[in-house]
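Box 3.1 A note on notation
Throughout this textbook, protein chains are presented in two layers. The first layer is the amino acid sequence; the second is a token string describing backbone geometry. Keep the layers aligned when reading.
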Amino acid sequence: MKLPNAHEEFQRYYQRVRIAAAGASLLFLVLFARFFWLQVIEYDRYHALAENNRIALVPAPPARGAIYDRTGAVLASNFSAHTLEITPSKTLGLDATLDQLSEIIQIEPADRKRFKRLLAESKNFESIPIRNRLSEEEEARFAVNRFRFPGVEVRARLFRQYPFGDSFAHVIGYIGRINDKDLEALRESGQTANYRGTDHIGKLGIEKSYEPWLHGQTGIERVEVDATGKAVRLLSRTPPQSGRDIHLHLDSKLQQVAETAFGELRGALVALDPRDGGVIALVSKPGFDPNLFVDGIDPDSWRALNESPDHPLVNRALRGAYPPGSTIKPFMALGALDLGLRKPSDSIDDPGFYSLPGSRHRYRDWKQGGHGQVDLEKSIVISCDTYYYQLSHQMGIQRMHDFLAQFGFGQKTGVDLDGELAGVLPDPAWKQKRFKQPWWPGETIIAGIGQGYNLTTPMQLALATMALANDGLVYKPRLLRAWSDPATGVWQRVAPEVLTRLRFNPEHLRIIKQAMVAVTQPGGTAASSGAGAPYLMAGKTGTAQVIGIKQNERYDEARIRLRHRDHALFIAYAPAESPKIALAVMVENGGHGGTVAAPIAREVIDYWLLGKWPSGPAALAATPEDAPEAETTDGQSAVSETVE
């Protein structure tokens, strides 16, 4: 047996030790290299990641700017309240959480419905309110049980409120929760970061038009958090910048006067200050309560508003397009003088109808038997249709279109609210494009009394009335009157903007304005509304047809369903010698302008000039001179009959 060689054994052992040492050294070298990579080369990156685990960047939403009327009355403001909110991704079971929460805090079925709807519209990691405006007792009950509800917390929120309810709904609008469409618009405008932590955005009216001003600038808070994500301390803060407070030209009391004067009637009123174009009243009846939309309107309330035959969600002042009826006659008369088609002394013999040369088709006047001899001033005072049948035929549709377009008919006024319609001021090119049909002479006749294809909005009528009141000077209609700088608190006035300066013969304007004053005096179609006024009011009544009647038949309101009756219109300004208000009133299915629309205007003007508060809805005063124009069922003529 060979004995082990000690030297060889030592060498083998030493070799193994060297290999092990080399392996260990290599491992330590790799480990060192990794440490060097992580702690030196990648230090900034991993330090930032560690800081992100320790520090949370929390957006600080700004307080939304308030909205005031011209006197300082609050039209939209904020109030603070506590909200119970759930982050679905952090809960152990959403339905179970809701059931357990309802045991300690009252959660109505409507709350659950709203929550489910908001959940469908939101991201899973977003906090969604389940109950708004918690009481102190409810807050205390939840605080005791908070450990049972991961992902549920109480937050302090600012809520929007509209103290006047439906009175200013269409003009002030409302805010609502940000949806996918809003997010897309924010991304396109590069404003996404400024809306971090913000749940609501302006949806309608001033709230939407001036959203960038009202929203403000979002701030950032750096908060140290523990392993559970709970805030430990505030490290630094970039404060948010509150939105701008804005003052409007609107007068809340004047608006309430107009609302009261309308009563239960449907329609719209626009009142402008002709001295600067300020919109001092904008009424659309019926309205809706904008407070319903702030927390998310419930399905039943939405269905009631959306399916109502009265269409309360439609802003009739800007989106209601109606035939202007006889309110167009002062503008037609001015066109007759300006184009040299009539002299003030020229008169016609009105037999109660008009026929085109070579035709047996009769276009009836509202007064059976006619008005006898009628000159230009009298044609406005008594609203003689026959005069304007002849005038429109002589003027022709193209000249009529071009002249009326100067007053803003057929185009948007540019008021600082979204959704305005342009209406329709027809001419042959428009009809060819719209219907692929030629223009017929009979369509010119009915266009001359504001019927046929003519469609205008109450805002357009008010703007055109301002043009007459100001002798051709037209200011751009504007709601914004002033705004505050959130940094300094200094108020900045918005300067009036001249839209156009129409040039007419001063004598021609004087004749038209004199005739409009006579409309509100004895013998005029709005005499009852002008009676007893301590100021001179200039105006013009109008009646716009809704449905046609058969030839050889007269309009009989008693035999027509309410919603098929004529619309009542009235335009006016006062005082006539130095106007401080110009307005347009439209009452849907109201009948005659002199009996329904004019009394509303009188109530509004009385308050604006005299401070007189109405006692109730404007009284109806019969004025037989202002009768409705009719329309044949074939749509060819607004006021006609055929002689065999």
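Residues 619-644 have pLDDT under 50 and may be disordered. The first strand starts at residue 55 and ends at 60.
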